[in-house]
Amino acid sequence: MPLCTSLYTSGLEPVPGTGNIPAMPEFVDLAVVGGGAAGLMTAIQAGRRAQAAGTPSRIVVLEGARKPGAKILVSGGGRCNVTHHVVDAGAFAGSSPRAVAKVLREFPVPETVRFFEDLGVILKREETGKLFPTTDRAHSVLDALLAAVRNAGAELRHPWRAASVRRDPEGFRLEPEGEGGNADRGALLARRVILATGGKSLPKSGSDGHGYALARALGHTLTPHLLPGLVPLLLPEGHFLRRLSGLSFPGRVTLRAPTGKPGVRFTGPVLCTHFGLSGPAIMDVSRHLLLARTEAPGSTLHLAFLPERSREELDGALRHLGPRTPGRWLRELLPGRLADALLEHGGVEASRPGHQLPRAARRALVEALLGMPLPVTGHRGFNFAEVTAGGVPLSEVRLDTMESRPCPGLHLCGEILDVDGRIGGFNFQWAWASGTVAGRGAVRRLGASA
User: Fold this and answer.
1) Is the predicted pLDDT of residue 85 greater than 90, yes or no?
2) pLDDT digit string (tens) for 143-169?
3) Residue 395: inside a domain, yes or no?
4) Residue 316: pLDDT band by 50, 70, 90 thresholds?
5) Is the dihedral of CA 448, 417, 70, 145 positive or negative?
6) Which residues pair with residue 173 across a beta bridge?
7) What is d(CA 369, CA 355) in angstroms, rounded to the nearest whole number?
8) Would you call 178 exposed, middle or buried from its count of C-beta atoms within 10 A (0-12, 13-18, 19+)?
9) Residues forming a β-bridge with 157
10) Which long-range contacts (CB under 8 A, 24 or more apart) does 400-403 make?
C-alpha cells in the first residue's frame, strides 16, 4: 500500500503576477471535503465534540456543488428516506461485514432517530420499515442539518471544490478549483482532513468520482471495479415486459452463476418501464449482477412472478383446471395485463380449456412463472444510480476513528468507502454512522495532538 507523502515543502506559494510575494493560505483545524449527508453529519459531530471539550476548533465544510445536500433532496422521491427501522451489516455489500457492523454500532438507528428528533425532524415508520420525516419533505431534513452545522460552530462554503489535497508540514494543503465562488479565497491549510466526497452516482449532485482521485493521491487504493449500484436495468427493445411500462408487481429476482448455481436473491416490488425493469428488488440485485458479469461472464438473472408459490402447487393447479382456461386462472393471481403478456410470451392460448393444455406447455408456463431468464442488456448508468459499488476498502481505515492507515491525519466516510447498502435508507444510515465516527474521531485526534 503506498504511503501518504508530502508533496509541498512550504505552506506558501507565489501569487501569479505578484513576483515572489507568497500567498498566505487560510488555516483551519479541520476541513471536511464534501457537503452531502456524510459530510454534514461529520461537521455536526466534530463541532459538537469540540464544543463539549471546550477546545475551540475551526471546522470548514467544502462543497463543490452550488447547493449542498442535493442527494438528500432527491432521495425517496423528494421525501428523504432517512434510515430503516432495522439496519445490520447483512444489508450491505463491499467490505467485510464485520467491519461494517463495527461502524454501524457506533451510531445505531435509535440514535439516528433521537438525533433528528433533537433537530425538530420527527420520523415515521412505513410498512416497508423505511423511516421518513413526518413532513414528507426532504427539505425538512436538509434544512435541519444545515442549521445544526451552524450551531455546531462549523462553516459551510459552497461552491468550493478541492482540486487537490496534499500533505504539508503543517497538515494538509487544499487547493481550490476554478474561478469565482469561494475559489478566490485561495488555498487552505488544515491540520486534519475528512474526505466525504461521495462516489460516482448522480454526478449532477457533485459526486462525480473526484474524491477517488484525492484518496489515491494520498496513498489509498480502490477496489478493482467501481460500478453503479441501486440502478435500473435494461431489457432488449421489443421485450414484452417493456410493453407493460408502469405496471408493478411483487416478484423475486435470483442471480445465477454461469454453472446455474443460485446466488443472491431479493424479493420485493418489480416495476416494468419503457426501458426495462426497476423497483426495489431490481435495484437491490443490480450491483450484484453487474459485478458478477464483470468477474464471472455468463452469470444470469431470473425473475419469479409468483415467488410465494411452489412448482408442485402451480403444476397441480394447472393439471386440475378442467374446463377453466389458463387465462382466467392466471388473472386471479397476477395483474391482467401481466397475465395475458406472460401467456402470449409462452405461446399458451389464454382461452383454451385447461384440460387441453399440453404437458410441455404446462411445465414451460410453470418455469416461466417461477424463474424466467431476464436478457439484461445493460443498466442506466451512474446518472440514475443511487449509490456506487466499490471504493476505498475499509481495511485501509481505523474503524474507531475512520482515520487513514497510509495517511495519518486523513479520515474518510460515506460513499467513498467500499460499502453500499440495499434500497430503503440503509445508505443514509451508513452516512450518518461513518460520518459520526469520522467527525468525533478527528476532533479526538486533534485534541491529542494539541
Assistant:
1) yes
2) 999 999 999 999 999 999 999 999 988
3) yes
4) very high
5) negative
6) 166, 189
7) 19
8) exposed
9) 62
10) 400/437, 400/441, 401/437, 401/438, 401/440, 401/441, 401/442, 401/444, 401/445, 402/103, 402/194, 402/434, 402/437, 402/438, 402/441, 403/441, 403/442, 403/445
Residue 423 identity (one-letter amino acid): I
Distance, in Å, from the CA atom of 210 to the CA atom of 416, rounded to the nearest integer, reads 10
Q: Are residues 403 and 358 in the same domain?
A: no
The answer to whether the beta carbons of residues 302 and 374 sit under 8 Å apart is yes
Whether 351 contacts 327, CB under 8 Å: yes
Residue at 5 is within a domain: no
Cα atoms in the 13 Å half-sphere on the side-chain side of 359: 0
The CA-based dihedral angle spanning residues 420, 395, 105, 32, taken in that order and rounded to the nearest 10 degrees: -70
pTM of the complete model: 0.93
- Tell whether 270 is covered by a domain: yes
Which residue range forms the structural domain that includes residue 375?
233-379
Asked if residues 67 and 96 have their Cβ atoms less than 8 Å apart, the reply is no
Residues 47, 190 share a domain: yes
Same domain, 95 and 211: yes
pLDDT score at 178: 72
- The 10 Å Cβ neighbour count of residue 144 is 18
- Alpha carbon distance 241, 107 (integer Å): 42
In a domain, 34, yes or no: yes
Same domain, 242 and 217: no
Provide the CATH number for the domain around residue 71: 3.50.50.60
Q: In this structure, what C-alpha cell is assigned to residue 380? A: 442506466
C-alpha cell at 138: 426532504
d(CA 61, CA 160): 9
Cell 503543517 belongs to 170
In whole angstroms, give the CA distance from residue 53 to residue 440: 11
The C-alpha atoms of residue 397 and residue 237 are separated, in whole angstroms, by 45
* Rounded Cα gap, residues 5 and 172, in angstroms: 11
- Same domain membership, residue 242 and residue 209: no
Which tens digits make up the pLDDT trace of 120-147?
Answer: 999 999 999 999 999 999 999 999 999 9
Rounded to 5 degrees, φ, ψ at 30 are -140, 125
For residues 305 and 250, give the distance between their C-alpha atoms in angstroms, rounded to a whole number.
Answer: 7
Question: In this predicted structure, what is the pLDDT of residue 185?
Answer: 61
